[in-house]
Amino acid sequence: MINSLLTKFTLLDGGMGTMLQKTNLPLGTCPEILNLEHPGIIENIHREYIKAGSEIIYTNTFGANGYKLSDTKFSVAEIIEAAVKIAQRAVAGSNAKVALDIGPVGKLLEPNGCLSFEEAYFLFQEQVLAGRKAGVDLVIIETMSDLLEVKAAVLATRENSDLPIFVTMSYGENGRTFVGCSPASMAITLEGLGVTALGVNCSLGPRGLLPILEIICRHTNLPVIVKANAGLPNLANNQYDMLPAEYARQLFPIIDLGVTIFGGCCGTSPEYIKEIAAVLQTRRPVLRRKLSFSAVCSGGNAVIIDRPTIIGERINPTGKKLFKQALQDHNIDYILNQGISQVEAGARILDVNVGLPGIDEAAMMRTVITRLQSVVDAPLQIDSTDPKALEAGLRIVNGKPLINSVNGKDESLRSVLPLVKKYGAAVLGLCLDENGIPDKAEDRVNIAKKILQVALDMGIKRQDVFIDCLVLAASVQQAEVVETLKAIRRIKEELNLKTVLGVSNISFGLPNRELLNQSFLTLALGAGLDLPILNPNIAAMSDAVAAFDVLLNHDVNSASYVAKYNTATVATAKKTPPEGSSNDIFYAISHGLGEEAAQCARALLEKYDPLDIVNEKLIPALDEVGKSFEKGDIYLPQLLLAATSAQCAFAVVQKVIVNSGEQLTKGKIILATVKGDIHDIGKNIVKVILENYGYTIYDLGRDVAPEKVLAAAIEYDVQLIGLSALMTTTLGGMEETIRLVKEKRKDTIFFVGGAVLTEDYAMKIGADYYAQDAKQSVDIAKKVLG
Amino acid sequence: MDSVSSMLFTEAFGEFVKKTPREGEVLKNLPLEPNKKLHAEALRYMGYKNSAAATPEIDLLVRKGLAEICVTIDSRAVYRYFSLQISPDYFAQKDSSRKRCSLMLHQYEGIILMGATLGVSADRLLSRVQIRDMAYALVLDSCATAAIESICDDLQDNLKAIYAHQQRYLTNRYSPGYGNLALSTQIQLLSMLDAERKIGLHATQNFLLTPSKSVTAIIGVSQFPQKNEYVSCDICKMRSICHFQRKESL
Questions:
Q1: What is the reported pLDDT for A575?
Q2: Pairing state of beta strands B76-83 and B23-28?
Q3: What is the mean pLDDT of residues A520-548?
Q4: What is the ipTM of this complex?
Q5: Which residues of A touch B241 (CB under 8 A)?
Q6: Which residues pair with A720 in a beta bridge?
Q7: What are the residue ranges in chain B where pLDDT is below 50?
Q8: Chain A residue with minimal CA distance to B196?
Q9: Which class is domain A2-281?
Q10: Both ends of chain A: CA-CA distance in Å?
Q11: Which domain holds residue B216?
Q12: Which chain A residues are Cβ-neighbours of B24 within 8 angstroms?
């Protein structure tokens, strides 16, 4: 089917809404109900389009999902069955095909909104099952803004039918969808997920969509669709004012790009389809050059691997006490912070490994990926030895990820490669097998060949297989260092595959590791390494890559290099405390000087016990600031500045405590923003302040179901729980949570806060304390936990 | 606008609004620049009673925050005019609230619905900064709130000017959740604006707007000059606990 869509033109239909408006039916009602109430009107519209030349017509089911129909008396199955029947009657006697039309759910997906990926999946699944049963010929997912929502719809279709899938998304003049999806990310991700054709619809006229189609055509070999609006709506009459002939004329440069599937969206009618048909009669499809490139992407950011690309390695608990602690305490912010700082330091892909004995790795993978992709735009490398955790991550990840990893063992090939194929990922293949890591380059290349062959046999593309030739410590196997370099060279030359390498193993057990790491990295890049896995926060490493990019002419005009190192342009506006005060941690904290506070803490550690520093220096300083806040002498931002500075000092002290195997905690507190509420800045403010007082915080995030709070209270054995809610409509969730937890754990103490709460109301819903602000939360915690 | 007219608008959705809009517009990248008013508003949202109370450090953070918000946001707005059509039966009703309502109804011949958002990019920025630096996150959050309100003010001023040409007068804007305009009106309002498709604005099941820095509102359109343009805090259910009450109503 793909081939015929590439080599001949296909004509879709035009606007359904536009045609319905002409019938003067009232706006605001669910237009899908017309399938049951006025089937004749819908059938006529279909017939007009077929008469005009449409070869595929869309059923009138754009909003026929369980969420949008919930206020009507009709079920999804009823509406879809009726819509498909109408379309089938209309196509009878012609060659036209019937496409099940699926639009967005109508709610934003997490983390932008409250809709979970699985909920979205089930809504789409219901539509697909109904469409398949009614006998549609294909599925069209259209007017989409969130690539992750598209992924839910595509998986729901593929896992519940064998129907071909067309996808079109809606882009604005800035080349982005409403939620920031880029055309390149869309093309790369959807080709990986196995759709039949992809493209754009709605929002702009054909000319406005041209630059977006250009980008799409540069990033996919699949047939491309355009279904533009008839220009922009006219302010005076709210009508689209581009005439059919002009619309068709604007398609010429789009045909030249190699786009082969055409139709119309808002404002278009059978007249437009007739005009397009006439134009297509005069033209032949332009065959696009076959593309072959390696890429991964997030929803908004496509990374083409055409130069050394740093994979940040820091999201990984191996050998990191604080990271392990963060995983155990569900301290997701700590993990996200690792991600953000690596991206700032130059990582273009982030490795995500959250495996730790005793935690539910699949659940943690889902949580971390969901949160991570809401704060960074880097594509992710999903890293786990557990196929279940891999798949959990693969479902929820937005864009095209890299999988870390498969190796030459048969079992690994069998369990990992089908996931690579199904989710359209790229994969990292390790040159080891049942016999371990071979010493010689020759044998490592042979394992790479085996991995590649199995992958190709499964339908995975060559450019999606990346090989890790593996590094052994020079202190242990010095003679084999050069074998790694040889293997990289041969894999590049003989197999033409991208190569990956975790560089810093090389220096294990030797002094001045940085020097060895940097030198080895440079050698490996010279041998053809494409994707070094490293810690970009170490300047020596990212510096080596920056220099390499200049010397190999990747960094044209050395622009990035100059921007990075021309320190003259970087303003150094450091706050310097007045003389004589630099040793005073109290001064540093109350004046919001984070670095100085950390310095003071370091100095104090030479003389004092870490716990004494917390109890006798940090907390009294915070208390003092808290008092000023209470009196109204200072305002919330200053309180938070003080808290953030104290945090810097706290981090210094905490590291010493954790490394000595001790625990620093004044007690445990769970914090959550209740079910249905996504405004969590208040909770986060409370969290920062409480952490500074030495309490261990289990932050469950926002939109947290009562059952989750209960589960956490049991798992972490926590007595004190703080809940926040912003809106009157979410206070119910607060009450429910308190009731459920107190039912099972009588001794639990709740404190609650939020803009619409009052002391009276807090008591009424069963809370023990009402916290008007962050300072009061501390007072409550002190009272309850000491 | 007062509580009676807000009640009117709640009812209006059900009964009086002619469901086919007469005109409307989608606006993108609405102009926004850091200025004194935005600065002062951001401070007010942080709880400052007056701008002079802010320390130089905080002023610096607010300047940084406003600059960052202005380059980050992907602002969009949509508005539509709907005429009101009231059946004569309605005026025949005897109960007193309806009578009061009907008095108000004579004033308004239509309503403008509007929706505006800073887009998902602002939310992303806010979540990112909340992980790194809560003090700055609070400042940024307040700057973003000031920004969306300022965008709505500008849009409202533009509409006022446009309608003045037709000798029509606008009330102030009125949002779901204030006074007795139910928060649940959000859903219908968004649907009448086709806001999901036009500007990517949605509501959750609990009627929270997503993206979070967004506003929806109703503006009354009248043939008569509107004296009562100012939204008084007195009509608001939140007045007993609100920290942001305007001086005049305290």
A1: 47
A2: antiparallel
A3: 95
A4: 0.89
A5: 755-758
A6: A669, A749
A7: 1, 229, 248-250
A8: A106
A9: alpha beta
A10: 70
A11: 3-249
A12: 233, 235, 238
